[in-house]
Design brief:
Elements: H1 2-14, H2 19-37, H3 41-55, H4 58-64, H5 67-110
Region (Disordered): 111-133
Transmembrane segments: 45-64, 71-94
Keywords: Membrane, Transmembrane, Transmembrane helix
Length: 141
């Protein structure tokens, strides 16, 4: 089986012009992408959760009783995760709006100054000592 998969991958990569390669590409790549693109978010999430349940093994189906119960559980989990994601996005949007407005106002006002703004000079700081001698020299012994 592994050899067959590697042979198909090599055929798709090394000889894309062959009729067999184009047929394999259409069946293995284009058609699944087209079907996945037609799914909405909730159904795609349901398929992911159902796939995870199937990867968990046959124990899940023994506990659920049948495949229909596993599908119902996957649908409920997917709807729950979808609702959680929507509520998180809504909360972030509500909290981020004032921050975006504050940053926009701050960045716009940064470049310009008010017309009455004058630049004032600070007076030079003078030493209070009354000595005109240069800095003391350290004597070497």
């Amino acid at each position: 089986m592994l050899v067959l998969c590697l042979a198909m991958i090599a055929l798709l990569r090394l000889a894309p012009g062959l009729v067999l390669s184009r047929t394999l590409h259409r069946l293995l790549v284009e058609e699944p992408v087209r079907q996945l693109a037609a799914l909405d978010r909730t159904r795609l999430l349901t398929l992911v959760v159902l796939g995870l349940l199937l990867c968990a093994g046959a124990e899940v189906f023994v506990l659920m009783g049948s495949a229909e119960m596993a599908f119902v559980l996957a649908t409920q989990i997917a709807l729950y995760l979808d609702a959680v994601a929507v509520s998180i996005v809504a909360a972030v949007a509500l909290r981020a709006r004032p921050l975006v407005q504050w940053l926009g106002a701050r960045l716009q006002s940064r470049g310009r100054r008010s017309p009455r703004h004058r630049r004032t000079r600070r007076p030079a700081v003078r030493s209070l000592a009354n000595d005109d001698d240069p800095a003391p020299l350290l004597l070497a012994a």
